[in-house]
Amino acid sequence: MENPIDQQLAITQLQHMQLENEKLSLELEKIRKGTSWLQLPLQLVPLISALVAVAGFLWGVLQYSDEQAKNRSDKETQSKRENAIAEREFMRPWLESQRQTYQEALTAATAIANSKESKDRGEAEQKFWQLYHGAMILVETKKVSGGMVLFGHCIDGTEACSQQQMNERSRDLATAMAESMAATAKMSYQEFVQNQFHYATGPA
After folding, report:
1. Residue-wise over 94-123: b if at least 16 C-beta within 10 A, else e?
2. Where do the TM regions start and end (predicted)?
């Protein structure tokens, strides 16, 4: 039969070993948990790399979109510039015709107002009405058209105008013509047409 003291010692040693085993188990568990935290960044490396790649791709797409938008804007600006140049070239002969017609109409108006000879006045009136009903319609803007009408009232019997009044209306007409030429030089053909007086003799 075993000595009770030896038996108690064996039990004590067994309990000590169990405690040591539990301690080791806890330490191993702690080590395992510690190792998993250390490995977490390594596990995230592929994800981070993928995110960086996607971000780079999206940045490239944004850069490409911005470049395309800038190219479109540049093309539109260039197209507008070329159209403006083409419009000015198209309007150049029109402006010259306008200038010449205005000059002839103004010369006729001043001759009517200031001619002493009835023959000269009659020829000037004839020239004025020829332009009034002909070439002026093609090139005059609304304000010039109004000036031509007012001066015409002095020679068609609508109003009894003195020489001073006719000269005043002639100067007003000259001012309207100068402003018209300056404005026409900046207009497209469509803008010029919209700024003309449109004569209508019947239903469209």
Report:
1. ebeebeebbebbbebbbbbbeeeeeeebee
2. 44-62
List the domain boundaries for the chain.
Answer: 90-194
Rounded Cα distance between 100 and 111, Å, is: 17
Q: pLDDT digits over 73-89, tens only? A: 888 888 877 776 777 77
| Predicted TM-score of the model (pTM) | 0.58
What is each CA distance from 37 to 44, 59, 171, in whole angstroms? 11, 33, 96
Are residues 128 and 154 in contact, defined by beta-carbon separation less than 8 angstroms? no
